[in-house]
Amino acid sequence: MIFSGKIILYDVSKGADMNKKVLRVIRILAILICIGVIIYEAVHIYEDQKEYDIADDEYEEIRTEMVKWPSKEDEASVVDYPLIQIDFEGLKEINPDFVGWLYFPALDISYPVVKEKEIDEYIHLTFDGTVNKSGSIFEDVLSDSKFRGMHDIVFGHNMRDSSMFGKLKNLYQKKDEDLLAANPYVYVYTEEYVFQYRVFGYYITKVGSEAYKVVNTSETYDEFLDYIQYHSAYARPAEADFSQRPSLLTLSTCSGASGSGKRFVVHTYKTQAWSRQ
User: Fold this and answer.
1) Which residues contact 210 (CB under 8 A, 6 or more apart)?
2) Which among 224, 231, 264, 229 is positioned nearest to 247, based on CA atoms?
3) I need a surface site. Which of 35, 74, 250, 268 has the fewest CB within 10 A?
4) Whole-prediction pTM
5) Which of 200, 196, 225, 198 is nearest to 211 (CA)?
């Protein structure tokens, strides 16, 4: 190139070396960033797992100390429902919001249920009030604390380790289809009654959908049943009888990636009620 009558020559090889150095630095930075992301994710996974383990230990201790499972002799005499003995007074001493024990034999889900006083109160609180991502199995603020509402809703996290409501996903993944066919019942133990519910529908939905409908009239009840039947991935049982509008219980958990707004719901209807008095 010529400027002011002078000739300036560029060393092309030096420019190429400079470009290589820049690319090398970029590659090193990219590798360091990737390593940083991996370390960051690993730390979070480790911290999450520590919280999950703490929650699992808490609930296992509750099951051991507050729940007595039937012996083989008792099981032989069981005709109507599993004879689980629950220390209601002891559980209420730990948490006054305790309203019942939920047992889903087909999926081996067994947890105390608390009644929230405000929305999402127990989403990150375990049964004893510890702040933990596992949270609790909790009943919706608008549901009936005695499980006698026309439509009651119970929530639980979809945990990676299959605790809480993590096993519900086995239904839509078809892992436990045969188990549900053999035992499609969910039990709720309260101080006054043992309620048996029969699964009659489940599907993936989203936050705020009609799956969470407030049902307090015969008209809204029938509309809700129509909505469930239209969306359900599970065929309604032939013996299902809704003529007397039995109480409905919905189990709800997250589905898909965090923040996606997707939910998985299992709808059940009350088939039996046994007095504990």
Assistant:
1) 224, 227
2) 224
3) 35
4) 0.81
5) 225
